[in-house]
């Protein structure tokens, strides 16, 4: 908010929406695990991750609403946008799958978020810098949780090794979008408000490669790189996620909760 | 049925100390216990002191505690299902965060309580098996469905509220680990209760549709909540012995009365009507009179024929079975790491202590 007026507020709002939607949608997916986890400790841990992400989402959506100046609250943004208006990457909306798929998604995304927030602490926008300074501690734990489970599953039993590899392979294509040259981020990176996503890739990849090797797994590959989330073009399952999330709120227009 | 949805310990580590095995060994001693041990136990109880895992205890006392604490733990984790049902649909982000945190608390309560039970020489895995096969029960209240968002408020206000009333006296229960568990858990339950009340308050003072939703929830949850205190004193199978052992301190009917006395004015503050035409203040008794409870419904649900009994157990079993390969992997990984450590010369061990630590902390 302290950024000079030279920065286009609507661009900053869009960036806040991108990061906020990433956190919101992943939180929604993680909370689907509630009472379905492999053990009680994981019910606690996954709820904890979902809560952290929800907190980040609320800060970011509230900020986006303030910047756009149309009087929209965090709830207006979460519950009253159509699925085409969400700006999250496709990775976070991917279904939970088995526990290995969820862990693969966590490993990819938490490692990305860790690099992102680490850099964003230096943002010239005080709001982003403040959020990043707090959230980087949270996602450091998220990353550690995912790393520990990747190791256990990769170097556990034959079955867990196979499932973990399948999870990593399944979601790998969606990681490209995390580092794509998005026009909003690039424009804001010039003034130091945002982070150029492309710069995060080397550290991310080195970190992922090290974990995968330690877990006796194989680095996935392939050239398919689906994207579109930042432009509101999502996967088919996303409509159902949004429908479920918004159903009750939309059933009672104008009601307060 | 005595202990509803909550209990805990001051921390799983504190409870699950090495004492568990000792207690089990002591309790399992064949034949009649030496007279001094029995006398010492009775002294502790009479002096209103705590029995600790290292102390000798009669086998029947141990069994009663295992049954009660396990049932309590099971209630915590089964209770996550009806509430978890609404996390993805919570109508505001603030409410979503509150509900997520609450359900997470309940999972934590489950963990504390299983740890408390383990001080009595049983295993969490065995207790879960008893839950999955129907040999142990959980609070019947969770066999009712959460049909609307208002049910989340009703559960917080009434079910957590009833749990608190059950559990406050358990903070002074004669078994130390269980008593200490209750202290921490009661604090969290009173948050849940307040949040539930606040949720319902907002609905009751919202649009007419929201008000109707809140009233409907109260209509459905009121009577099952009264049943949470267990059968009437005259028919309560375990009450007398549990009171003598100071596991229990008040009768079912006394606690139920306390709950009605607290809840009736709260319902008034909410602007909602308790679905009991016989509910009225009795000046002479200094208590609310209330109507007859339909104990046949209670017996039906207890017998497994509530709306959700089958669904709740089936989901629990499915989660457990689906997670089997994950738990196996964690065990296999831990075994491999241990073998690696054992194979390493001691000098090497200290070279990368951080790595070692990570591996051990499953
Ligand atoms: Fe609880
Ligand atoms: Fe609770």
What report would you give on this structure?
The complex is a heterodimer of chains A (257) and B (362). Chain A has 257 residues and is mainly alpha-helical. Chain A has one domain (9-218, 230-251): Ferritin, core subunit, four-helix bundle (Ferritin, Up-down Bundle). Chain A is built from ten helices and no strands. In chain A, helix 5 (99-120) runs antiparallel to helix 9 (201-214). The longest helix of chain A is centred in the first third of the chain and has 29 residues, at 40-68. The two termini of chain A are 29 Å apart. With 362 residues, chain B is an all-alpha fold. Helix content of chain B is 65%, strand content 2%. Chain B contains 17 helices and two strands. Chain B has a two-stranded antiparallel ribbon. In chain B, helix 9 (176-204) packs antiparallel against helix 10 (208-227). The two termini of chain B are 34 Å apart. The structure holds fe (ii) ion (FE2) (2 copies).
DSSP helical segment count of chain B? 17
Q: Could you spell the SSE succession of chain A in H and E letters?
A: HHHHHHHHHH
CATH fold topology of chain A:
Ferritin
Counted up, domains of chain A total 1
Order of SSEs of chain B: HHHHHHHHHHHHEEHHHHH
First-to-last CA distance of chain A: 29 Å
User: What small ligands are held by the chains?
Assistant: fe (ii) ion
Which architecture of chain A per CATH?
A: Up-down Bundle
Q: What ranges of chain A have pLDDT less than 50 throughout 5 or more consecutive residues?
A: none
Mind summarizing the main beta sheet of chain B? 2 strands, antiparallel
- What proportion of the residues of chain A is helical, as a percent range? 55-70%
- Rg of chain B, nearest Å: 23 Å
Tell me the strand percentage band of chain B. under 5%
Strand content of chain A: under 5%
Largest interface: A-B, 50 and 53 residues
* Mass-distribution shape of chain B: globular
Q: Determine the number of helices of chain A (DSSP H or I, runs of at least 4 residues).
A: 10
CATH class annotation of chain A: Mainly Alpha
- Number of beta-strand segments of chain A: 0
